[in-house]
Amino acid sequence: MQRTLEHPLARLRQWIEEERSEGVSFPHGAVLGTLGLDGVPRTRMLGTYLCEDGAPKFYTSPSSTKVTEIHKHRQASLTFGFQRSLRSVTIEGTLTALGTQELEVGWQEFDEDFRRHYLVFGPTSGSPIESLERLRAERDLLSPGAEAKRPESFIGFRFGEIHRVIFYAVMAHDFAECEEYRPKNDGSWTKVLRVP
Questions:
Q1: What element of type H or E holds 57?
Q2: Rounded Cα gap, residues 108 and 120, in angstroms
Q3: Mean pLDDT of 158-167
Q4: Could you state, in order of their start, the residue ranges of all structural domains in the chain?
Q5: What's the mean per-residue pLDDT of the chain?
Q6: 32 with 66: CB under 8 angstroms?
Q7: In angstroms, what CA-CA distances link 55 with 12, 151, 170?
Q8: How many Å apart are CA 165 and CA 51, to the nearest integer?
Q9: What is the pTM of this model?
Q10: pLDDT score, position 6
Q11: What is the CATH superfamily name and number for domain 10-80+94-163?
Q12: By the 8 A CB rule, do 90 and 79 touch?
């Protein structure tokens, strides 16, 4: 049975907050899936944040493998696994780069400690390294206040277009509930309940 409803990402925000209130320290962690340049699917865990419209976004470095993959294939999926409540949310869509203003705001929202560490690892994220000692030495040489300015290596993406959202919830002594949402041309959404 299909029916038209409001934007489903309000529920994603609610589920993240419910996990946070239950003491989960990383409720905004999700698995990003992209298509590798060799055609092999790639996944990785990352921290996500929600735009004002509810669309997920994340920050990364230009040297990251996922950035090369995103530039070639903008289609991606993102799955939140909420272990405390035995629920998940999967989003499929097209990624777009974050603008300069959004990056500036995002940079300032991170605490000073993270920003100082990012100044060291961000430009070469994903590169081979023999030990963390070199990174620690570079961090310790940073001048006070260096973290105030956003580096060019701090970039990000958001789901600019969402094609499908799936909510999955394990029910005690019952069938799991699987709901699929798809956008309509008029900005509303259709919902289909699927066999789990």
A1: strand 56-60
A2: 17
A3: 97
A4: 10-80+94-163
A5: 94
A6: yes
A7: 9, 24, 24
A8: 16
A9: 0.90
A10: 62
A11: Electron Transport, Fmn-binding Protein; Chain A (2.30.110.10)
A12: yes
